Amino acid sequence: MTQRSTQRRRPASPAPSLPRASRQRGTDTRAGYAFLLPWLVGFIALTVGPMISSLYLSFTNYNLFEPPQWIGLDNYVSLLQDERFRQSVGVTLSYVIFGTPLKLAAALGVAMLLNSKRRGQGFYRSAFYAPSLIGASVSIAIVWKAMFGDSGPVDQGLSFFGINIGGWVGNPSMTMPMMILLTVWQFGAPMVIFLAGLKQIPGELYEAASMDGAGPVRKFFNITWPMLSPVIFFNLLMETIHAFQIFASAYIISNGEGGPAGSTLFYTLYLYLRGFSDFRMGYASAMAWLLVVVVGIITLIFFRTSKSWVHYSGDSK
Amino acid sequence: MTTTVTPPQARPDMPSQEYNPQAESVLAKRIKSTIFHVVTLVLVAIVLYPALWMVASSFKPNSEIGGTNTSLWSSNFSMDNFVTAMDGIGGVSTMTFFTNSLILAVGAVVGTIVSASISAYAFARIKFPGRGLFFGMMIATLLLPFHVVIIPQYIIFQQLGLVDTYIPLLIGKFLAADAFFVFLMVQFMRNLPAELDEAARIDGAGHVRIFRSIMLPLMKPALISTSIFSFIWSWNDFLGPLLYLNTPDKYPLPLALRLFVDQTQSSDYGAMIAMSVLALLPVLIFFLVFQRYIVEGVSTQGLKG
Asked: Same structural domain for residues B118 and B239?
């Protein structure tokens, strides 16, 4: 109520403006919710409602055909004892921990290479970006499987250099490197974002550093890294959250089974199998909520630690 | 002028070419530039190799794909694989899968454009109590692993008898469930000058008029990037159709591809890869036509906020 006067820009005639301002505010509130309606309905019906109901289901035994049966924490307890669950956690964590930093390193490296005024930049940028657009598709998963298969082109190419791995697809210890290569291959999207960030760094900083005798390594750690840190943070957060949710490629490459020997049993794939092939919906809901909690904690840790290494320029916002 | 051009080897301790660009000789510049292009082109070749291999293999006979060569060239190029691939699978022609994918993608684009732009207008241009709270929640859904909602959503649609229809796949698009696009449009609209609405208001325009006649025309770049990305994401979507569609004649291409893989079991690699190429063709065409928009969109809109 006390905010009334701030609504109007011109305080020239306050007395007659007050009813008009409050009428305008009433209209704005109604209009605001009217325009928000599509999102609001979706948010309640497709996000909040289902989240609450999956939290409830995670404490039940539910197979879609009989009414849910309350079993308390049983699902969570059996998760801890489930060998396949532990395997899926391991697979997903190693994918996130190795894949994401490698992908971002490739993205940053190529972005720095491309950050100059030379001809052909547009072409290079587009060419590097292309895999990001198609990489998560079923088509590429099929191609990846064919390329890394027994005596596929990757195998052939490596044996030319005297490296004989054999097929990657059927070898449980080589499937993870293969999946990581697939995600690293899609470094183009974060690269484009890095490139936009690099272009914002004033060239004078580098010139001044050169005058003081700084080499490329010092320039990278003292100028590029801190100046780019908000972008690095953004990419790291988004790519990490994204990596937890890989599904289609793992499903196609392993024929929907997570094999060989569970080496591609990603978390979401196991969740899918539990929910939609065993119809253990309560169990799968418990898995889903655990994922939300873990991703939430990781996001929180990222934001907490970001204060020490992410530098925002003073005049932002 | 001439005195400043000292050859670099005369003062090895000074990083002269770094802070004095004039000192760098034309030759050194050209060598640097050549090295840059060679290195970058090698990287481009490595990155594009899988895509080129896919296209080349789709024209090769089966015997040449898995077996002996890594080369992209073959003297036996033919369209045979595509003829097999177009026959489809399980008695359904590939054209049907194409049509299904197209219906879903166009539906996704229309739904997303309409619902996301309307909701974004509320977030960006109208002041009302609760806006900040809802905006925060919208951002939170950007980070939320969507797997937490798929099981209850499936139960709801199953009880409504909507499994094996396109409604579960499209309804979210019409309810702005892809928060990314709402966010993108909010950011875009916030950068449009506030004087526009104020002037329109003084002229007596309401929110509907302002939205339709002022915001929408100015938002064209954001609408175009949203259309491109929602089309491609819908086109490539696998999990949604996998959950909800059961009958093959309703399948979009990614699901048809999986069926194809299951049934042929790597006996007909050529046709499988030809079908993969067909499934990606619209995405590749989109990319070639709109690459400026796509890459610009990622670099500017992926960042703001």
From this structure: yes
The 10s digit of each residue's pLDDT in B159-214 is 999 999 999 999 999 999 989 999 989 988 988 888 888 888 888 888 999 999 98
Alpha carbons within 13 A on the beta-carbon side of A290: 21
Angstrom distance (rounded) from CA B158 to CA A10: 56
Q: How many domains does chain B have?
A: 2
C-alpha span between A15 and A8 (Å, rounded): 12
What is the ipTM for the molecules in this complex?
0.85
Same domain? B120 vs B244: yes
- Whether residues B286 and B194 share a domain: the answer is yes
CA distance A60 to A283: 8
Cα B49 to Cα A137, A248, B39, B46, B140, distances in angstroms = 17, 21, 15, 5, 38
Residues of chain A with pLDDT under 70: 1-20, 313-317
Which residue is associated with the tokens 């020997």? A261
Hey, is the C-beta of A54 within 8 angstroms of any chain B C-beta?
A: yes
Per CB-CB distance under 8 Å, the chain B contacts of A35 are 118-119, 121-122, 126, 207, 211
A70 membership: H or E segment, kind and range: strand A69-70
- From chain B, the residues in CB contact with A272 under 8 A are 239
- Give which of A125, A197, A160, A245 is closest to B148, Cα–Cα: A245
